[in-house]
Design a protein that fits this description.
By secondary structure, the chain is of the alpha+beta class. Helix content is about 40%, strand content about 20%. Helix 16 packs across helix 17. Belongs to the protein kinase superfamily. CAMK Ser/Thr protein kinase family. SNF1 subfamily.
């Protein structure tokens, strides 16, 4: 495998360099009991990036160390805070992940995903790519950019040097140091900061009249696609001002090996008029783009990103078909036996201790369905665990939520993208007594208002119905 990939600092690009023993001494306080520091991957004006290993998990990470004194002197603290906020907002398989942030009096530490396949730039430097390979990278790039834009994040410095490849050849967007968020848009609805790398910058940025950052990212993606396919830049000149003129006029020519379909596609992306330039949804509907494209499927569990490798996973089959196909061939008695086996194999929920119970209700009134907090609610039921899970699945089906189950935990995930991502709710079942269960519901992602609306419209009534069913059971069986 290739040597460790160039990682970036957010404000400067990291160039590979040799490891220094003095740097290890500097980091001993950070890594004791947690991370074992390896070689220095690179350095910039305000930061250094090291390869490191988590001692407990043996996981490889990249640690970016920022000199707090330097950034305080030039007023970059707000910039660093914004970068942290952005990286936490955009967790996606095609974006370099931020795992945690730590700080001392003199240093700020970003513990990040270690990407060791090299820069995409290094791959292109060897020559142009085959169309299928270039298309795959472009599809992954657009998936990452679309994810960012849906969350109000705009990169504004997309280029092959800021795109890394992992050991499996999957693309990872890095360096969100120049990124902007929708909160920074001025009253005219546009951004006004001049930023980006000259060869990849959009013509409207050069005009300095304000620009739509989403359209600027799309332009940069178009330049990247051209470079992947051609092996050189669409707008290039030794004189920077001459190059800017070419960009401003949109003067470029596709080489003869570009298919007519690709040439037409690029002309729509590299449209100098941002009003008529192709949008992300239109890109995703383009015939050239769609060949072999699969939407990236993933979810966050226990603060970790989990990939869904198959187009339809086993869990989704269970949710969509409700076991219909497998149960169709079973007799009634066989079905009952199978249900009993499922009940027997299900792990017992964790028991609550006295302190948990006290925290649940100051008055010990366990008859209430919910005790609501800012982002959570609790529900008490006499129903068995499988019945509670079935009710949660039933509620999720009504609003077309995806359901993921693990032991006594259920995750419900909405499909609607918002600025804070899809609404994600975690429900965990605890045992209060041998005959009573507590369901604790928490918002894990998405908009608070949407969460409260879902709780009031769907979750509360659904679980209240379950409670009514529980009370009705003894009289029905008498």
């Amino acid at each position: 495998m290739a040597a460790a990939a160039t990682q970036t600092t957010g404000t400067t690009t990291m160039a590979p360099t040799r490891s220094l023993s003095s740097n290890k001494k500097e980091l001993q306080g950070l890594i004791l009991g947690r991370y074992e520091v390896g070689k220095l991957l690179g350095h910039g004006t305000f930061a250094k990036v090291y390869h490191a290993k988590n001692i407990k998990t043996s996981e490889n990470v990249a640690i970016k160390i920022i000199d707090k004194e330097k950034i305080l002197k030039i007023g970059l603290i707000a910039h660093i805070k914004r970068e942290i906020s952005i990286l936490r907002r955009v967790r996606h398989p095609n974006i370099v992940q931020l795992f945690e942030v730590m700080a001392t009096k003199s240093k700020i530490y970003f513990v990040m995903e270690y990407v060791k396949g090299g820069e995409l730039f290094n791959k292109v430097a060897k020559g142009r790519l085959k169309e299928e390979v270039a298309r795959k990278y472009f599809q992954q790039l657009i998936s990452a950019v679309a994810f960012c834009h849906a969350r109000g994040v705009y990169h504004r410095d997309l280029k092959p040097e800021n795109i890394l490849l992992d050991e499996d050849g999957n693309l990872k967007v890095s360096d969100f140091g120049l990124s902007a968020i929708s909160e920074q848009i001025k009253q005219d609805g546009l951004f006004h900061t001049f930023c980006g790398t000259p060869a990849y910058v959009a013509p409207e940025v050069l005009a300095r009249k304000g620009y739509d950052a989403a359209k600027v990212d799309i332009w940069s993606c178009g330049v990247i696609l051209f470079v992947l396919m051609a092996g050189y830049l669409p707008f290039h000149d030794q004189n920077v001002m001459a190059m800017y003129k070419k960009i401003y006029k949109g003067e470029f020519r596709c080489p003869r090996w570009f298919s007519p379909e690709l040439s037409r596609f690029l002309s729509r992306i590299l449209d100098t008029n941002p009003e008529t330039r192709i949008t992300i949804p239109q890109i995703m509907e383009n015939r050239w783009f769609k060949k072999g494209f699969k939407h990236v499927k993933f979810y966050i569990e226990d603060d970790k990103m989990c990939s869904v490798h198959d187009e339809v996973s086993l869990g989704e089959n269970e949710n969509n078909n409700s076991g219909f196909e497998s149960d169709q061939s079973l007799s009634e008695s066989d079905s009952e036996i199978q249900t009993r086996r499922k009940l027997a194999s299900m792990p017992r929920p964790a028991s609550l201790n006295a302190f948990d119970i006290i925290s649940f209700s100051s008055g010990f009134d366990l008859s209430g369905l919910f005790e609501e907090g800012t982002d959570g609610a609790r529900f008490v039921s006499g129903a068995p665990v499988p019945k509670i899970i079935s009710k949660l699945e039933e509620i999720a089906k009504v609003v077309s939520f995806t359901v993921r189950k693990k032991d006594c935990r259920v995750s419900l995930e909405g499909s609607r993208e918002g600025a804070k991502g899809p609404l994600t709710i975690a429900a965990e079942i605890f045992e209060l007594t041998p005959s009573l269960r507590v369901v604790e519901v928490k918002k894990k992602g998405g908009d608070k208002g949407e969460y409260e609306d879902f709780c009031n419209r769907e979750l509360k009534p659904g679980l209240q119905n379950l409670m009514v069913e529980d009370h009705a059971l003894p009289s029905d069986t008498e």
